[in-house]
Design a protein that fits this description.
The complex is a heterodimer of chains A (363) and B (131). Chain A is α/β, with parallel strands linked by helices. Chain A has a domain of 241 residues: 3-Layer(aba) Sandwich (Rossmann fold), CATH 3.40.50. An eight-stranded mixed β-sheet of chain A has the order 1-2-6-3-7-8-9-12, with helices on both faces. Chain A has a four-stranded antiparallel β-sheet with strand order 4-11-10-5. In chain A, strand 7, helix 3 and strand 8 form a beta-alpha-beta unit. The longest helix of chain A is centred in the middle third of the chain and has 38 residues. Chain A is elongated, with a radius of gyration of 23 Å. Chain B is built from three helices and five strands, in the order H-H-E-H-E-E-E-E. Chain B has a five-stranded mixed β-sheet, with helices on one face. The chains are: A alpha/beta (363), B alpha+beta (131). Chains A and B meet through strand 10 and strand 11 of A and helix 1, strand 2, strand 4 and strand 5 of B.
Chain lengths: 363, 131
């Protein structure tokens, strides 16, 4: 696989340039432009934030673990942990490459700010890609482009395509726009909800103690913070001026078909704790005399996350949302909708959505 | 019969007894081949008879409680072990194996003290045969 990195100029003193990476697949197939979500970066499509994202909450809990013989009895709580990383997951870049598509991915300006500069930046990137990036990477200058966006990236794609609907350079070469869990009709997430979730998170941390609190904070703090701490969230709220303006007069980019995906799973990870078995405190006629064994179970009342937390809005209600976006708000009047039982992170690696999107991209 | 409960494995008392038997090591026989480890005082029951008077007070109370709930139960003490601060200290044992699962009784107690300059733990284990 060949990859090429290109730098293009941006008109901002605090962000004078940016780079994008072209990963080259089959030159006769379209090029997929990838747009990440709020608070994220290009690694969402490649490395999948290995510590945070692909929690394996589906596998059965592990069985009893033998910690070996020890000189002292053991009782009580041994450890607290989140689910381990799901095995054998791949991000969109390797998946698309494996299936022949070339990809373009980059880290957006203002990934927690307003959408205006990321939209303008995307235009600059596309200009550079069409004038330099494609041909310098060994791809046809006329290669078709497809857009695949996640979360806030969907709004960036929509805004860019709306603004460039009459662009003769782009018309006729964009056939598919795939929007994964985009807050296209907004999200009800707000400070009140954040406070409620943080209260639940605080209770969970208090319950599982110092062993588990940093784990939860790492996993959920960054996830919530990415959404709630930026100006971008003002634009993503239901009924925002930005969303109203975006929808006003919006039509599919000429020649393009839009596909929207919404999720209904709010399970992010289980919170697991290991307790010493009663037998770990019973000495045996052996040296050392104590055989330490631990059992795994979910922390009652706090696991799985977010199922065990409050459900004040559809976004965080099982069957209605994917933690960040409600399924019903992920779709557009002119899109082909699809609902899948995925959480907001699973869109980045789940094999079933990758298979479905592959069908869309190849048809 | 009391079943230990908790977050644990759901093991029954019989499961514990079987695990005890399966993991048992006869130190007396072992040390006839390898020698007694330094720091361990090893004698046989013939040399150091084991009786109720050697049981820690709370352990003895447990045994008395068991006897009260099992009239006619007679306990013959066969083995005794004491570990101090994680090191084997005393073993009273001969070549006899631990009793069969329906005759086995074990009692134990771990006491400890921990301050800024002290950390001590003592575990006593007694193995008896029910008759």
């Amino acid at each position: 696989m060949a990859t090429f990195t290109y730098t293009f100029t941006c008109p901002w003193t605090d962000w004078p340039r940016n780079t994008y990476t072209v990963s080259v697949g089959n030159p006769s197939m379209p090029v997929v432009v990838l747009l990440h979500g709020a608070g994220a970066n290009s690694s969402d499509f490649t490395n999948l934030r290995p510590v945070e994202f692909p929690y394996d909450f589906n596998s059965p809990l592990p069985g009893q673990r033998d910690l070996g013989w020890n000189g002292y009895p053991a009782v009580g709580l041994y450890s607290v942990e989140l689910d381990p990383r799901r095995p054998n997951v791949q991000g969109w870049v390797p998946f698309l490459l494996k299936n022949g598509f070339s990809t373009v991915d980059y880290s957006q300006v203002d990934n927690q700010g307003l959408v205006a500069r990321p939209v303008e930046e995307l235009g600059l990137l596309i200009d550079n890609l069409l004038s330099t990036g494609l041909t310098s990477s060994g791809l046809p200058a006329t290669a078709p482009l497809l857009f695949l966006a996640h979360s806030r990236g969907c709004l960036i794609a929509r805004k860019f395509l709306k603004d460039h609907a009459a662009d003769p350079v782009l018309r006729g070469r964009i056939h598919r726009v795939v929007l994964l869990a985009g807050p296209n009709q907004g999200s009800e997430w707000g400070n009140v909800v954040l406070a409620a979730e943080n209260t639940a998170l605080g209770l969970a941390e208090a319950a599982i103690g110092a062993l588990g609190a940093p784990l939860l904070a790492d996993a959920l703090g960054t996830l919530f913070g990415a959404w709630m701490q930026g100006q971008d969230f003002e634009e993503m709220q239901v009924g925002s001026t930005f969303l109203a303006d975006l929808a006003n007069g919006e039509a599919p980019f000429p020649g393009a078909t839009y596909f929207t995906f919404g999720g209904t799973n709010i399970t992010y990870t289980r919170v697991r704790w290991w307790w010493f078995t009663p037998g770990s405190a019973l000495p045996q006629w052996h040296w050392p005399p104590f055989d330490w064994q631990v059992d795994c179970s979910q922390v009652p009342g706090f696991s799985p996350v977010l199922d065990a937390f409050p459900h004040p809005i559809p976004e965080v209600t099982p069957g209605l949302g994917d933690m960040m976006v409600a399924d019903a708000r992920a779709h557009l009047p002119f899109s082909t909708p699809q609902t899948m039982q995925l959480n907001h992170a699973q869109w980045l690696y789940d094999a079933s959505v990758q298979a479905d999107v592959l069908k869309i991209l190849t048809n | 019969m009391t079943t230990p409960t908790g977050q644990g494995d759901g093991s029954s008392p019989l499961d514990f007894i079987r695990r005890f038997i399966n993991s048992a090591v006869n130190f007396h026989v072992l040390w006839q081949k390898t020698g007694v480890p330094p720091g361990v005082h090893h004698t046989t029951p013939a040399q150091s008879p084991i009786n109720d008077g050697q049981l820690p007070q709370d352990v003895r109370a447990l045994v008395d409680q068991y006897r009260a709930s099992h009239p006619g139960a007679h306990v013959t003490w066969l083995k005794r072990m004491q570990a101090v601060d994680g090191n084997l200290s005393v073993v009273v044992e001969d070549e006899r194996p631990v009793p069969a699962e329906t005759a086995l009784l074990t009692v134990s107690q771990t006491i400890s003290i921990n301050t800024s300059d002290t950390a001590n733990a003592v575990t006593d284990v007694f193995v008896g045969s029910l008759g």
